[in-house]
Amino acid sequence: MYRYLFRRMIALGLSLAVASAVIFAVVELVPGDPASFMLGTGAQPETVAALRDQLGLDQPWLLRYADWLGGILSGDLGQSFTYKTPVAEMILDRLQVSLPLALMALLLSVAIAFPIGMVAASRRGRPTDSLLMGATQIGISLPNFWFAMLLVLLFAVRLRLLPAGGFPGWGDPAAAFRALILPAVALALPQAAIIARVLRSALIETLGQDYIRTARAKGLSRGQALRRHALRNALIPVLTILGMQFSFLLAGAIIIENVFYLPGLGRLIFQAITQRDLIVVQSAVLVLVTAVIIVTFLVDIGYAAVDPRLRRR
Predict the structure, then answer these.
(1) Which of 226, 292, 283 is nearest to 88 (CA)?
(2) Where is the ABC transmembrane type-1 domain (predicted)?
(3) Would you report the helix, strand and coil content of the chain in percent, each value rounded to 5?
(4) Helix (H) or strand (E) segment spanning residue 81
(5) Is the separation of the CB atoms in 104 and 182 below 8 Å?
């Protein structure tokens, strides 16, 4: 097990190193000059050159990459060109919205998907199975931003139970939690539909194995065999989907953040791209990529916990 963990940690470190180089290179290749954008089209060349010197944009890209990477290793992500604010503070401030939102949506999707997937698998081919799978197909097909607007119309405008948008901050935890409920539901339901379908397929395949038939022959009911034996062995594809979904929920919730006016990390990246604030884009995207790589690492550890055979590789 320790050798497995060691190999995965080396792979994690290499992945982070490659990701930082790729992110820096891609952002550098994007057309447009941040200094010219900040000063406007009528700025004098001397003024643009002075601002480029002030921002360090006139230095060779390799030197700027080394400075950026060294700052990251020391915990300094640099300063925003536009807001003159430390990038680390901006990202941490936005993560206070995006991270709880992603966790809430993921937990909610799991809580919805697992009962649906298990019931559908245990009643394969019956009307209940068809009804549940039809519902999940609808959940996958519905655009989450359209569903989010329906939630706002129903629960915020008509029933007045939850806020329609905005985020009051964590000074009032109850108000902050209420502000994230509708966005979390809008994000969770399509993801729950995907997890439920994957879990059903994995369980159906597992229920056809010999050890399940042996368990049934020993007197276990279909539901008991499913919960005690089949579920654990069907978790590997589900863990893969969960890892991918958490990354999507953390980074890809920009549309939902705009629908509900949430100051999240996705919205920060969008604003930084439109303002050509390269240092914010690079650092924020690196944070997201780091989160994806760490989640992938945790999923690999989950594989080893579920399937002991992987620990000996």
Answers:
(1) 283
(2) 95-299
(3) 80, 0, 20
(4) none
(5) no
Residue for token pair 């539909």: 193
Torsions phi, psi for 74 (to 5 deg):
-95, 0
Residues 28 and 123 in one domain: no
Residue 79 forms beta bridges with which residues? 86
Residue 69 shares a structural domain with residue 91? no
CA atoms within 13 A on the CB side of 309: 3
SS3 31: coil
pTM score over 0.90? no
Same domain? 283 vs 193: yes
Mean per-residue pLDDT over the chain, rounded: 81
For 133, the domain range is: 87-312
Angle between helices 265-274 and 235-251 (to 10 degrees): 50
What are residue 161's DSSP bridge partners?
A: none
Spatial contact of 186 and 147, defined as CB atoms under 8 Å apart: yes
In a domain, 298, yes or no: yes
Read off the pLDDT of residues 214-256 as tens digits, 9 standing for 90 and up.
777 777 777 677 777 777 777 778 887 887 788 778 766 778 8
Write down the pLDDT at residue 12.
Answer: 76
Count of positions (residues) in the chain: 313
Q: Is residue 79 part of a domain?
A: no
- 286 with 244, same domain: the answer is yes
The pLDDT confidence band at residue 104, using thresholds 50, 70 and 90, is: very high
Are residue 49 and residue 155 in the same domain, yes or no?
Answer: no
Closest to 28 in 3D by CA, of 1, 53, 62, 2: 62
Q: Can you tell me the distance from the alpha carbon of 115 to that of 108, in angstroms, rounded to the nearest whole number?
A: 12
